[in-house]
Amino acid sequence: MKNVKMLALAGATVAAISGNAFAADRTDLHASDYKWLQFNAMYSIGEKPENPASGDQHNYLEMEFGGRSGVVDLYGYVDIFNLANETTDNGDKNPGSGTSKLFMKFAPRFSIDAITGKDLSFGPVQEVYFSTLFNWDGLNGEGVNSTFWGVGADVNVPWLGKTGMNLYGLYDMNNKEWNGYQFSANWFKPFHFFDNKSFLSFQGYIDYQFGADEDETAFVPTTSSGGNIFFGLYWHSDRYALGYGLKGFKDVYLLEDGAGALALESTGWSHYLSATYKF
């Protein structure tokens, strides 16, 4: 589906909001700059999509980063799978399996408030962005090479507080075509503080794709919608974090659950354990 209507709609929405905006004081765009970097040692059990013939567990190291600099709000991470190149009975990243050892997500957003010098906030919406997202793995031309383009906002949600929300159009770099949309949201909510200033947080995200072309004739058949949701419970100190995450999948990456020659499982639940060091 070569469709860019969503981007046109996004532009019209931003223009309409701008017409009712008033000037904001943005004389120093870098006054609230910040950045962060951490390394997460992770273990995944049951991650989807899963090939029942090869297992569903693996370890990986994740370099996670983010921050704000002027008009740019950034989040991203790089994952390295199966650090010791081990072969295990239940491992889905075994040497020789043909799977990529790398995955990267890079998500810069550009503040329309800061670019225009106007305050576009209204109701629960705190700031408006032109949002992009890039997903890459280590396979050239065959693996994950997708980009997302659209609009986003920081939204004040009851109890959760500031929640990042984005609506994108998906451009498939392998097939060189637009194919559907994605809604994403992410949150980080500290909810219990200890006397030593460490705390517990509820954190997670949603990625939901829709409006895509189905392909029942593909080697791995695809559907028109699907996605995942992550619920994490983490303990944080200034330097360390420990966490558990529960992740639900429904036809993730638009792969039809149990269909095709490989009969990949793309629907179900998985578990994540993590230990973090913060820089």
TrEMBL record:
Lineage: Bacteria, Pseudomonadati, Pseudomonadota, Gammaproteobacteria, Alteromonadales
Name of the protein described by the UniProt record: Outer membrane protein OmpK
Compartment annotation: Cell outer membrane
Family as reported in the entry's similarity comment: Belongs to the nucleoside-specific channel-forming outer membrane porin (Tsx) (TC 1.B.10) family.
Keywords: Cell outer membrane, Membrane, Signal
Keyword Transmembrane helix attributed: no
Transmembrane parts of this sequence: none
Leader sequence residues: 1-23
